[in-house]
Design brief:
Number of helices: 11
Helix content: 40-55%
Structural class: alpha/beta
CATH topology of the largest domain: Rossmann fold
Oligomer: single chain
Strand order of the largest sheet: 5-4-6-7-10
Distance between the termini: 55 Å
Number of domains: 2
Length: 306
């Protein structure tokens, strides 16, 4: 499929729009004395993480958000990392905290994510953030899930009553996608490893989300003609010559002949995920300002001066 094919639901334009909105909000907050700041935590040396961090830093700079990377040695204990996070929670100069994954095996990632204060949980990974989605508090949703829904909205499809199937039910992607879409009025079916016939469900979907980590799982005969397909999978595929390439959970070459929209991998959900992270940073900043006003009854300018 050529890159200019209109069936490609590319993430770049959607991400650019979100970043422009974030930049306007960040400039306004900075003018009032509240400059947003992200802190990225990396434990150990992982080359793939460095790529993500560089991308996040570049996009944060575009959005007018300060970005600081804090690197810790691989032998750091979970307790030491939690203590460092608690210090960032208490630091009014830090708006949001990002935990780069993977972390060393001896560090329990869920406990570390729970150590981040919900008001600074810009990744939307804290149990409270995920739980709030059930109650239609949607503005700090997990970034990948929110990015996926944002791409579906970019099709212009009316989500009210839309038949949606989500293949994959992870706590940070599949399940949040389902709740986000239900809040928009969509009718949602979630498939998982115990679903008896994924194909039967997938074939009736107006919009199909796939996040299972199985390369090319979804074939053309599993997709309803005219559907929107959001491919969230990222898999390394080894070619005959020994080289590798990144592919999604959808067999794009066959599905593109059936679907009206399909996200490319890479270049689909990924760019929007970073943009949502930055949008969440501004949501976090506004929540922190509101809490300070409510708690102390002090003008924001006085808080900024402090």
């Amino acid at each position: 499929m050529p890159l200019d094919d209109t069936r490609y639901l590319k993430g770049g334009p959607v991400a650019a729009r979100i970043i422009a909105e974030v930049r306007a909000a960040a400039e306004s907050a900075t003018a009032e004395g509240f400059r947003p700041k992200l802190v990225s935590i990396t434990v150990g040396d992982v080359e793939a993480v460095d790529v993500y961090v560089r991308n996040q830093r570049a996009k944060a700079e575009l959005a007018g958000i300060d970005f600081e990377e804090r690197r810790f040695p691989a032998e750091l204990t979970a307790g030491e990392l939690e203590a460092a996070i608690h210090g960032m929670n208490a630091d009014p100069r830090v708006t949001g905290i990002i935990i780069q994954r993977p972390v060393p095996a001896h560090i329990p990632i869920k406990a570390i994510q729970a150590a981040v204060h919900p008001l600074k949980d810009v990744e939307g990974m804290h149990p409270a953030s995920i739980g709030n989605i059930v109650y239609n508090e949607l503005d700090l949703a997990p970034c990948t899930a929110a990015a996926s829904v944002e791409l579906l909205k970019a099709t212009g499809l009316d989500l009210k009553g839309l038949e949606v199937v989500v293949v994959g039910h992870s706590e940070i992607v599949g399940k949040p996608i389902a709740f986000l879409l239900m809040s928009e009025g969509a009718t949602v079916t979630v498939c998982h490893h115990m679903t008896r016939s994924v194909a039967a469900h997938a074939r009736r979907a107006d919009a199909l989300f796939v996040a299972v980590g199985k390369p090319r799982l979804i074939k053309a005969d599993m997709v309803k003609p005219g559907a929107a397909v959001i491919d969230i999978g990222i898999n390394a595929e080894t070619l005959a010559d020994g080289s590798t390439r990144i592919v999604g959970d959808v067999d794009t070459d066959s599905v593109k002949e059936v679907a009206s929209w399909i996200t490319p991998v890479p270049g689909g959900v990924g760019p929007v995920t970073v943009a949502i992270l930055l949008r969440n940073t501004m949501v976090a900043l506004n929540r922190q300002r509101a809490l300070y006003r409510e708690t102390y009854g002090t003008s924001e300018r006085q808080f900024a001066a402090e």
